[in-house]
Amino acid sequence: MVTCDIKGSQDGQGTCDQNHVVKCCSLSVEKTACVAPAPPPAAGCTGGAIALTLQYTGSTISGPTTVVVTGSSGASVTYDLPSLTNGDVLTTASENGFTIDATAHGQSKLGSKTTVTINGVAEVLHTSCSCKATPETNLALCDPMCLDSSSPDNTTGFKGAPSPLWTLVGLKDPTLGTETCGGGGTTGECQTALPAGGADVEFTYKITNTGTTTVSDLAVEDDKLGIIDASQIVPLDPGQSGTLTTKQFVASTTRNTVTVTGNDGACMATAKAAVVAPCVLGYPFTSQNPRTSVAFNESEVLRAFRPATVQPGERLMVFYNDEHALTLGVRKVLVKSQTGTTMMTFPFTLLMHNPDGVESPQVGTTDLNGDNAGTDTATCTGFPDLCDRPLFPALFITDITMDPDSRAGDWQFGVIDPDTGDSKPENTPIPPNAVFGTWKGAVRTVDKTKSVPAVTVTPDTDPAKNHYNLDGGDTAPSGLTDQGYGAEVAWNVDDLLAAGVIERGHVYRVQFMVHDGDQNKVGGDTGEGCATVFVGEE
């Protein structure tokens, strides 16, 4: 194409430069940063099975089928199935994603024998480490289960014969941890969460010519990795794509931006991707802000966070589990005075069935101060109300794109600057957009008949245990501790984007706070956790 370089006044008069030729083009680029999978653990057994995932390898059974799996330690689970097909893998959220998990039943191991019955017909598997055979069936991943000598279908008279019905595809071992057949769990998905200490990361750049002319040269530059050689994918004809890859060890949260230019800069495209390191809470510590010294006594109730990278339309998910149900918030406040008692009720989503699942739940009062505060009664010396924490599940967000060490949005950093002691606006907790599983409410009482008003928080009675049955929620990650009461608390990415608290292409520190409501007068044990998350650009 010939363009005219108009030189002169604004009346459009000038000289046409016939030698100025621009090769028009149009490009797009997609970038991913995927943590390389860790080497698969060695298949084996070091202390007997804690949990098993079994794949059925027998003949297909049409019609209703009942499978009961029972460990000699007492753990037992029943599957009522419409049929049982060769290749079926039996798992359930209540067993932490396994076929059977002893810890879901308060046991440390399944025991030396695990009996599996299909419509009442039993097979006895040996699930300790003493079962040897050729081929190896000593709880070896991807191999048939080892039959116990007492199994009715074991005609050898000794333990070690391979089961004709069940193959081991998942194992939780006391020393090796959780193993899966193939060594890596889900395949084909890009994992963006770095392990502690870092890992190799594979960076992929898919460049597409979206124009109508050929792109004869490409310049590709990653702001963290430098120049990426693109000579092997040019020229790119219209509609064609080329993919470049490179690998580098990464130890900390890293956001990369790639810039692609074509035809000597005539067209350009950019994309971002990130891998995120584990979040470190960093509390408690002593500072000029007494909140940084507040202890959270049961942070382990926050069992898992997903995912490390989110896109619009997805949600941030926190999985809770404890010996008491999650407290969703304060539904009622009673204020006692010399003239009587006043009662204030607040919109609150009750558990209608167990388990339950609700979008846009009402969490009671979200006031942070005053008689109607939806907070616990934690105190700081010299600051009566400063350290009260939200009783409803709360999210706090810090943009760490430019400062990976920032905690400016944390609950602890509100009200008083930890470094200077100066006053600052309190960071606002964000209630959840969804809750699944079980939960309960609480009643706050303010007794002003005393010389120093006394505040108590009384949680409602726990519902029945639901384990990890989340009634329409997301499947909890496998291998999580199960103490009986499970819940998923979620925040919608679209809502956070619309509220302006997050932006696409940025990296965030997200801090979570929950109460389980098992201690009268203080509102329950309190847990906090944090995670690092990248918000994708799609």
What do you see in this structure?
- It is a single chain.
- With 538 residues, the chain is an all-beta fold.
- The chain folds into three domains: 27-35 and 189-275, Immunoglobulin-like, CATH 2.60.40.10; 51-180; 290-535, no CATH class.
- It is 1% helix and 37% strand.
- The protein is built from one helix and 30 strands.
- The protein has one helix spanning 493-498; strands at residues 27-35, 51-56, 65-71, 76-81, 89-90, 100-101, 113-118, 121-126, 144-146, 162-173, 177-180, 199-209, 218-222, 226-228, 241-250, 254-262, 267-275, 302-306, 309-310, 315-322, 326-337, 340-345, 356-359, 394-399, 434-437, 439-447, 454-459, 485-492, 507-515, 526-535.
- The strands form seven sheets. Strands 2, 5, 6, 9, 10 and 11 form a six-stranded antiparallel beta sheet that branches. A five-stranded antiparallel beta sheet has the order 18-20-28-25-23.
- The chain is flat.
- The protein starts with 26 loop residues before the first strand and ends with a strand.
- The model is unreliable at 1-18, 133-137 and 183-188 (pLDDT under 50).
